[in-house]
Amino acid sequence: MKKAKGSKAKTLFEQKEETDIMTGETPDIQNQVTEEMPAELASILDLEVGETGNRIEFEEGEKVPVPEKLSFKPLVHKDPWQQAFVDENTILIKRTVRSGQSIQFDGNVVVLGDVNPGSEIVASGNIIVMGALRGVVHAGATGNKEATVSAFKLQPTQLRIANHITRAPDGDYLSPDHPETARIKDGIVVIEVYQLGQDRQTKIC
Amino acid sequence: MGEVIVITSGKGGVGKTTATANIGTALAALGHKVVMVDTDIGLRNLDVVLGLENRIVYDIVDVTHGNCRLKQALIKDKRFEGLHLLPAAQTKDKTAVNPEQMRELCSELAKQFDYVIIDCPAGIEQGFKNAIAGAEKAIVVTTPEVSAVRDADRIIGLLESAELRDPKLIVNRIRPLMVKKGDMMSMDDIIDILAVNVLGIVPEDEMIVVTTNKGEPAVLDNYSRAGQAYRNMARRITGEEIPLMDLEADTGFMNKLKKLIGFK
After folding, report:
1. How near does any CA of chain A get to the CA of B179, in Å?
2. pLDDT (tens digit, 9 = 90+) per residue, B98-122?
3. CATH code for the domain defined by A11-53+75-204
4. Does the model's pTM come out above 0.90?
5. Among A31, A188, B83, B235, which is most exposed with the fewest C-beta within 10 angstroms?
């Protein structure tokens, strides 16, 4: 993953290994996020505190906004081999999710289409968008920090995983042409090049 | 206690949201503590115009339903310290909030801010009733078109029956040349029909499109004529006496020449 030198890359979502890119522009991001916060949410909305900051303070017991009720009925197979494939609930959405529409689901969400700005997808599992992701997404909404968000074009208004909230930095930034995945790595949300079936081995066997 | 001002129009697309964003920003630039409240639930735009869309976590519906504290939902502007936004919800509808809750919310905000500016949705239904519920003053936006003026007249009537006396008028998107030729309603024609005091007049300005799309209010652009008009309005709201903009000034030959060679 190479970035043009000096470009305002998606610094918030940067891979941790590439710390050299992050120098200069936003030096404090990692400290801020990895810092143990007393509340449920490590907000990185207030990166540039005082200037653009919108500090969201959470008191003891308060949680990241999560839909009150997510109905979930797991599929049960008799054959354990079959069961390995259906261990999580997944829905397929075969249309563009438009502004004002909200999809809330206990499980994984796959969208065959775009997710437009002003729309919202909240899932307790992973979110995969086979198109451009430009709206607000919340993966692992019930607290699953392993949850990921993948999209052909990952340009969310806001991206949340479990109790982390991130957004793209202000101003122009590079938007690559390849699919990307966002996940929590060492306490911060990072964006990586989407790798085909990287979890295949660990999931099933 | 701060002032609660609602910006409304009846007709859509005349510039309520643009006026809210610009007047709010101009007031904050003058050093006042300002909060802008978007009441257009389901069709929110104010956050986009201000370039604050990606900071929204909680919204007005969350506040009125007690899902979060008011302070958590307020978004601080990236340019001015004293400027805040309370965004509308996008995935709910107008019935999610009732006038009683709005009154409560406005009085709470008025305690913390000098100016509470409410961006009203188009129409005269529930959204409009919510928006005006907590307001003490009203600003009506119109354009020099018969339909917009007709709607403004209807709105002024509704405001008066809701005890919001003496609303102020903003006439937006005036084209001085067309007025001169008699192709567009003049200020006199509009005031003749509406019979209200004028807060400001805004000339047609292509820069508004550019600034709105960029998420930066026009008042920040010193060369924008519309920006100048909104800055004047903000100062009139604070009680200063400023004469209305001379729209003719831009049409003379000498001025065009000056503009051409970059003096203006």
Report:
1. 39
2. 999 999 999 999 999 999 999 999 9
3. 2.160.20.70
4. no
5. A31
